Structure formats: structure tokens, C-alpha cells
Amino acid sequence: MTHTAKSIWSSTRHPGAATVALAAAVALLAGCSSSDDGGDDPLAGDKASGGTVVVGSNNFAESILIADIYGEALKAKGVKVSYKPNIGSRETTYGLLKNGSITVLPEYNGSLLAYLDSKAEQTSADAVNAAVKAKLDSKLTLLDSSPAEDKDSVSLNAATAKKYGLDSSSTLADLKGISQDLVIGGSPEFQTRQQGLVGLKSEYGLEFKSFKALDAGGPLTQAALTKNTVQAADIFTTDPTITKEKFVVLQDPKNLFGFANVTPLVYKSGLSEEGVAALNEVSAKLDTKTLLELDSQVQLENKDPLDVAKAWLKSAGLG
């Protein structure tokens, strides 16, 4: 299906809409991770020197974790790396990339396109990447996208999934004949937007018993789904609550919820061919299930993201 980047609200999970509380929590998290390598002001804006690749991250836990994965994968190839973690909004990171202060940044392709061109159509991950590359500053480029996506989904609580015999291989189409018995929850906008109840009806023929206005995949939605106040809800696909509460994320074969593939955004002249190859190897092996598992280790088990990154790279033959 075709939709525009403008309609994607899942980008609020990505840079630009982090709350003060989240930023503070991630700052503490970053204090025991890759930020120990640098210690400089992440907004200082000094260009990398001596062949050093500067890996940046935004101010939320997943971005810091992926940045650590990128950085340690580069180090494993003998590349000199420093980190600028926990920076903030896309406006800031994009500017630092353009002036060469950052060499590599974890991005989400659909959200980045929405930032660059809110009216661009999104029909496939490849089309999104092509559109991004056409809009990027000439000094920047995207590398290969990973299958890993952090985006909206319709998820069921464990009891509901068991009742109807659904699991992680089930799709939204499998709710046909079931949805009318379910209360679904999400942000108020979920009720009226194409990437919500409107699209669930037009693309999958789904109508629900009722809708409960909550928040955008946040604590209100998570609690309501856990307590069975709602049986289905808009939950982000790499949210560790999925692991903790055994929610079942339904597959979206028609890509109603757009594209949010984890993709390295790089300052072209600052990264060697060997560095490009190293990051493309990461993308080839990082999928949504893996990213959810790694996020859960960091956010539920309070593991150091740098340690989690190193362990996964070693297990994947990349460290």
C-alpha cells in the first residue's frame, strides 16, 4: 500500500519527542555505557580528527544501544572510534552530521524521510531509502537498512492470544471474525488516522468492539493491555514490555504501519569502505526479534548497553 511520511506518528518514539524524564533516565544509563569513552559535551561540534569515526546517538535507550553496536563493530575491524551519546533531537543530530562532527548515527528510515519530506510516499523499504537519499545533504548517505523495525503494531495480551490461538506468526488478517469481540487501545489519534482504526478497517476489514483512548504506546497503554482493560493495543515493536508481559505482536503484511527500519546514517567522507562493510554486516544480522531481546536486556535487566552490544556482536560473529 501507499501512504505518506506525513501520516506516520510512530516517529514520535524516535528523536524529537523524548520527555524530560526519559532524557534524564537515559543520561544515567549513558553514564555507564559508551559515553565513558569520551566525556566531551555531545553538542561541542568539533570535527573528528586522526581518522576517528564518531558514533552519535539520540537521547533514548535503544539509540544508545544501537550506537554501541555500530561502534564496537567498527572497532572489531580496527577502526578508531569515539562516541557522542544522548544528543537529542533529529534537528541537532542532522546538523552535526552535516558538519562532520558525527560520522555515524542510528536512524529509522521512515521517520527520517518524514523529517526530510513529510509528503513523500512510502511504498516499500527500498523506496523509502531511495527517497531519503534523494533528499539528504550531499555529504551524507544511508547504508543498508536492517530488517529490525521499531514501529507501531497491534499487539494482544497473552490471555487474548491464547484464547484465539494466535502467536507471533499470526497477522492482522487473523483478527477477522475476532476483532468485534475486542476492545482496542491507543493514542486518541489512533482512532481517526489511516495508520490506526481507519486503515485496520480499509486494509484488513477489522472493526473492534470499542476503542479506549490512552497514550502512544506508553505506560497507560501498556497497563491497560496488561490488566485486560483492552485486549489489543498499539504497542511499539521493540518495546521491552512485550517481553515482560508476553504480549503477542501481530504481523502487518500490508505495511499499514509504514517503515521504521534501523539504518546507519553516515558522513560519507568520514567512513572507509571497510567501515561501510562492517556496518552493512550488522544490518544484515539485526532483526526486530533480536533488537527486542537486546532492548529487554538493557531496559528490564539493567545491563550496560555496551556490554550487551559486545556480547551480541560476538554471538553474531561480528565482534
Report on this structure.
- This protein has helices spanning 20-30, 61-76, 90-98, 109-116, 125-135, 158-163, 194-204, 219-226, 241-245, 273-285, 288-299, 305-315; strands at 3-4, 53-56, 81-84, 104-108, 121-122, 140-142, 154-156, 183-186, 210-213, 232-234, 248-249, 262-267.
- With 319 residues, the protein is of the alpha/beta class.
- It has two domains: 3-149 and 259-315, Periplasmic binding protein-like II (D-Maltodextrin-Binding Protein, domain 2); 154-249, Osmoprotection protein (prox), domain 2 (D-Maltodextrin-Binding Protein, domain 2), CATH 3.40.190.
- The strands form four sheets. Strands 9-8-10-7-11 form a five-stranded mixed beta sheet. The chain has a three-stranded antiparallel beta sheet with strand order 4-12-6.
- It is globular, with a radius of gyration of 19 Å.
Task: Indicate the topology.
Elements: E1 3-4, H1 20-30, E2 53-56, H2 61-76, E3 81-84, H3 90-98, E4 104-108, H4 109-116, E5 121-122, H5 125-135, E6 140-142, E7 154-156, H6 158-163, E8 183-186, H7 194-204, E9 210-213, H8 219-226, E10 232-234, H9 241-245, E11 248-249, E12 262-267, H10 273-285, H11 288-299, H12 305-315
Parallel strand pairs: 2-3, 8-9, 8-10
Antiparallel strand pairs: 1-5, 4-12, 6-12, 7-10, 7-11
Helix pairs in contact: 2-10, 2-12, 4-5
